[in-house]
Write a structure and sequence with these properties.
Chains: A alpha/beta (281), B mainly alpha (221), C mainly alpha (210)
Oligomer: heterotrimer
Radius of gyration of chain B: 26 Å
Strand content of chain B: under 5%
Helix content of chain A: 40-55%
Keywords (chain A): Membrane, Transmembrane, Transmembrane helix
Largest sheet of chain A: 6 strands, parallel
CATH topology of the largest domain in chain A: Rossmann fold
Structural class of chain B: mainly alpha
CATH architecture of the largest domain in chain A: 3-Layer(aba) Sandwich
Strand order of the largest sheet of chain B: 1-2
Radius of gyration of chain A: 22 Å
Structural class of chain A: alpha/beta
């Protein structure tokens, strides 16, 4: 019976220490297990793959901030690499004011890898206040909603934005989303439903399960769920020969796998302890 | 009367006009809608003032009263002022000339540099420590006490193993089962809940427009 | 091999990361410092972005540069927020709030009905497409049962007896699977956030992994 009590009452510090070891060790001794690509991730990849090169831009919205960066930032970079390697133009914007710098950092890092130039191959519109008022405004007119880009250049003087008036000129939009405002609360009701915009999303794993009804109904074409979704996208981009850059999400997947097994083990131990002590009571 | 009447009337009119414009796409309603979008963007931006005020008052009071931990409040206020000054006078474009230089020699303290090296590590780490607390909480409280809890536990295990690479190494069918779980039963439940939330939010919106829900008026006359 | 970062800013970032991690050993001055620094820098950053991305291009320039006088109306409504500083006139704050709330509610009603009710009902219907293959047909029946029983479980808050109880019990099973899936994904999310920070420490700062 004593075993039951021990298993049911492992000290919190031991749990913390155990978790720390489980997540750190695989970084030094990688298993390099490659998982399957989930169909919603493949769908997102295919949708970006369908965009015409040197034509109307892919729209990416930064709807997150540093607090969910480890999950979403690798997605953003992988999607940018996919687009740039295929010469797909990118129009980026932000709905989270504290996320503006992440968009800038990603573009500064990835664009030079492919020799892409601001204004010709990509544009960063930056951020505007008003959430629904911003995206609804873009449905009417993008240049009226964002008269200038993030650095104050008037949109009409930016070559790649000529002829991009509203969502009709956006072949595909991706909201990289950490909650509200984001894909489910803003882009689906105000953009996809109202303007028929083809929409995909990269989401934090916390809300990924909530996106499935929209995936099934066709309101979403493509979904990356959490860091695993990012790793899948990195894999697809590398496999297609679009990028040889390092793959941070993929690198973390061994630790991710081990941590999940560890938590399952902890829950099982807790339950064994629970059952054994309950039997005695 | 005026103190509640004017805001409620404005709320009613704005709400009804916005519903009507959705169903009647006429040039006039389109024009009103477009202009309203600009107005809302401008008005909502001023909410920043409220946020800055509450932070300044909260920390300012602690500093003035020298209440315990006032030094941390000083850190917050100084950080806010310094970052704002660098951002406002140094600009957002590192290549443009600005009132305030944002680098000394090779050392840059441009707004984006502060963002990438202060906000990013702090923000990203704040929630990362939850991993430890979650593991500990799951261990202590996640018990298969009854049929429902057992179903929850099994579904969680399938998603936890099936959605990471090790899942397919353990059993190649696991990722497919996890995906099925998300696509079929979990999706059905989420959709049912979604209906409830959607109808609830529509009801709340109607109550706000019609003045039945008055919580936002914050009491008083 | 260790390849410590030569970048001073990376060291600052690493130190701050460790300050936040120190909370695992209990609340302490290092964590408190990091927490307050975060709040301060974030608000300062927001002030700068609000000015450059909004106040300058969308208000100051069109109003004072191009003379778009209509903007005086939203400007006055926005300035009403400042009334909160004067106790006697603090009720004036309700005017812009009333407008924005009414506007938001007005646009939300049709949008939510369209996206989260009508389109979702359409997605649950059995169509000729779902009849094409036996498995899509079976699963769409399973989905339909799940949606209906979940809705029944939530909407009938009176005591559930007889056949209603059976239906509601089926609903509970679906809901528990849904919650379980969300829990599994939440575990994934929390671990990922930790891994991102470990990568920063081990790769960008210490240079012990690549």
């Amino acid at each position: 019976m004593k075993i039951g009590e021990i298993l049911g009452k492992i000290d919190r510090r031991i749990v913390f220490g155990f978790m720390a070891i489980v997540v750190i060790v695989p970084f030094f001794f990688p298993l390099n297990v490659t998982g399957k690509v989930a169909p919603p991730s493949q769908q997102l990849f295919d949708a970006v793959e369908e965009i015409q090169p040197d034509s109307k831009p892919l729209l990416i919205s930064i709807d997150f901030d540093p607090q969910s960066m480890p999950e979403l930032y690798p997605m953003l970079k992988a999607i940018l690499r996919h687009a740039f390697s295929r010469n797909v133009r990118v129009c980026m914007m932000a709905l989270w004011v504290t996320g503006v710098g992440l968009g800038e950092a990603a573009l500064n890092e990835v664009a030079p890898e492919y020799g892409k130039v601001h204004g010709k191959d990509y544009v960063y519109l930056g951020w505007k206040p008003g959430f629904a008022a911003v995206v609804l405004g873009m449905g009417k007119s993008i240049p009226e909603t964002f008269p200038t880009d993030q650095y104050g250049t008037p949109l009409e003087s930016i070559p790649m934005m000529r002829g991009v008036k509203n969502f009709r000129d956006i072949p595909y939009a991706i909201s990289i989303s950490a909650g509200d405002p984001g894909a489910l609360t803003l882009w689906i009701p105000y953009v996809q439903s109202r303007f028929g915009q083809k929409l995909g999303t990269g989401m934090t794993a916390v809300s990924a399960a909530d996106a499935y009804p929209y995936l099934q109904s066709g309101q979403l074409t493509g979904l990356l769920g959490g860091m695993k979704g990012a790793a899948e996208y990195e894999h697809l981009v590398a496999e297609a020969g679009y990028s040889e850059a390092s793959k941070p999400a993929t690198q973390a997947m061994d630790s991710q796998s081990m941590a999940h097994l560890a938590i399952i083990l902890l829950i099982v131990l807790g339950n064994i302890g629970f059952i054994l002590t309950k039997g005695r009571k | 009367m005026m103190k509640q009447g004017i805001p409620r009337l404005l709320c009613l009119v704005a709400g009804i006009v916005m519903i009507v414009q959705f169903f009647i796409p006429h040039p006039i309603s389109e024009k009103i809608f477009s202009e309203s979008l600009r107005w809302v963007r401008i008005i909502s931006a001023f909410a920043l003032v409220l946020g800055v005020r509450s932070i300044t008052v909260h920390h300012g009071t602690r500093i003035i009263r020298k209440s315990s931990g006032w030094g941390y409040s000083l850190v917050a206020l100084v950080a806010m002022v310094v970052t704002a000054v660098i951002g406002l006078f140094g600009g957002v474009d590192p290549h443009a000339t600005a009132l305030l230089p944002t680098s000394i020699g090779g050392f840059s303290f441009h707004l984006q540099v502060l963002y990438a090296n202060l906000m990013v590590p702090l923000g990203a780490t704040m929630f990362s420590i939850l991993a430890f607390y979650m593991a500990s909480a799951a261990y202590r409280s996640f018990r298969a006490r009854n049929k429902e809890a057992t179903v929850l536990l099994v579904a969680a295990f399938i998603v936890m193993i099936g959605m990471v690479p090790i899942g397919s190494a353990i059993w190649p069918k696991l990722p497919d089962i996890a995906q099925w779980l998300l696509n079929v039963p979990s999706m059905a439940a989420k959709r049912g809940i979604l209906f409830g939330i959607a109808l609830g939010s529509v009801a709340t919106s109607l109550k706000i427009i019609l003045g039945i829900e008055r919580g936002w008026l914050g009491g008083g006359k | 091999m260790m390849h410590l970062s030569p970048d001073l800013w990376v060291w600052v970032g690493a130190l701050l990361t460790l300050f936040v991690f120190s909370f695992l050993f209990g609340d302490n001055p290092f964590y408190k410092f990091a927490e307050h620094l975060y709040v301060g820098v974030s608000v300062g950053y927001m002030i700068a972005i609000y000015y450059w991305n909004f106040f300058k291009p969308d208000l100051i320039e069109p109003l004072f540069g191009r003379g778009e006088l209509i903007l005086i109306v939203p400007l006055i409504l926005g300035l009403c927020y400042l009334a909160i500083f004067i106790q006697k006139f603090s009720w004036v704050v309700r005017i812009p709030m009333g407008f924005v709330l009414g506007w938001g509610s007005g646009i939300a009603i049709p949008a939510v009905l369209q996206a989260n009710v009508i389109k979702q009902i359409q997605g649950s219907l059995i169509t000729s497409q779902t009849l094409a293959h036996w498995n899509t047909f079976v699963w769409s029946i399973v989905v339909l049962i799940g949606v209906i029983t979940t809705v029944i479980y939530f909407f009938f808050s009176r005591e559930q007896k007889g056949s209603l109880k059976v239906v509601a019990n089926i609903g509970i099973i679906y809901i528990m699977i849904g919650f379980g899936a969300s829990f599994g994904y939440t575990v994934m999310a929390r671990i990922s956030l930790l891994l991102g920070r470990l990568q920063f420490l081990l790769r960008d700062w210490l240079g012990v992994i690549h």
